[in-house]
Amino acid sequence: MIRIFAIMLSLLLAAPTISASAQAGDNTTNEALADFGNIEPDDELIDVQTITDAMLTTSQKITELGIRFLLNLVVCWILVQFFYFKKSRRRDYYFTFMIFSSAMLMLLYIMGNVSVGVGMTLGLFAIFGVIRYRTETVPIREMTYLFIIIALAAVNGLAPVFQVTDVATNPHYILEMGNVGVLALVNLLIVILILILESVCASNNTTTKLVLYDRIDMIVPEKRAELIADLEKRIGVKINALEIGHVDFLKDSAFIKITYNLEDGETNTINQLTKAKRYTE
């Protein structure tokens, strides 16, 4: 009991000393603030809330959306028109890529400007997943371009275009041309990369074709030369190599994958299709 009373008495005696030290510390802080940036000692410090109070005006929002939408639309049109459609000639995917790109950009732009819960985000991706697995298999080339378009829509829809200025006095947004230039450079690099890869692939004119062959007695290794000669006569191409695939003894047929060279300017866009309903002009 005596020990507790002694501790309390020591604290009471030390209180004036602590108060004086705190007051001296406050005076030192005020003097430092007065010397830093001509801030008055009694002024309130700028906090994070002051910085985030800046809001985009209606004209700035329209300008931002226009820049994002037009840049994304032009770049996707270049990719689809001059790279994808030039070889595939599939108008169904042409329509799909252009609409999907614009819709994805709008979705990501809205999600980036509003507070969206994790549950809603997962629900949106679940919807896309259900749509994906209820449709037919997408070829590899089409799937690659689809992922490129999604990536471009994400970059063009979420990359910063405006930035806050005059934080200390009047925080507001201004259009930062440096951000716009970086965004345009990212899109340009993607276009250049695809241009290089498509040029490299175009230099290799070897392609493949699936053939449903009806003479099943010719697929044995002993008759490989006769098989190649028969296929070249019936298809009209010079075969470089072939592979025997699925064999159906009930229907006396087999799938054969042949490899041959294309003529200059010739394309083969449906080489892996085996059902008529999977091809749409």
Folded structure, characterized:
Helix content is 59%, strand content 12%. It is an alpha+beta fold. It has a three-stranded antiparallel sheet with strand order 3-5-4, covered by helices on one side. A two-stranded antiparallel sheet has the order 1-2. β1 and β2 (172-175) form a beta hairpin.
Which labels suit this protein?
elongated, alpha+beta, 8 helices, about 10% strand, 5 strands, two-stranded antiparallel ribbon, disordered C terminus, three-stranded antiparallel sheet, about 280 residues
Largest sheet: 3 strands, antiparallel
Side by side, the strands of the main sheet go: 3-5-4
Tally of alpha and pi helices = 8
The helical percent reads: 55-70%
**Structural class, from helix and strand content?**
alpha+beta
End-to-end separation in angstroms reads 97 Å
Oligomeric status of the shown chains?
single chain
Shape: elongated
Mind telling me the C-alpha Rg?
Answer: 34 Å
Mean pLDDT: 76
State the total count of DSSP E strands. Answer: 5
| Residue fraction in strands | 5-15%
Helix-strand string: HHHHHHEEHEHEE
Describe the structure in brief.
The protein is of the alpha+beta class and 281 residues long. 59% of the residues lie in helices and 12% in strands.
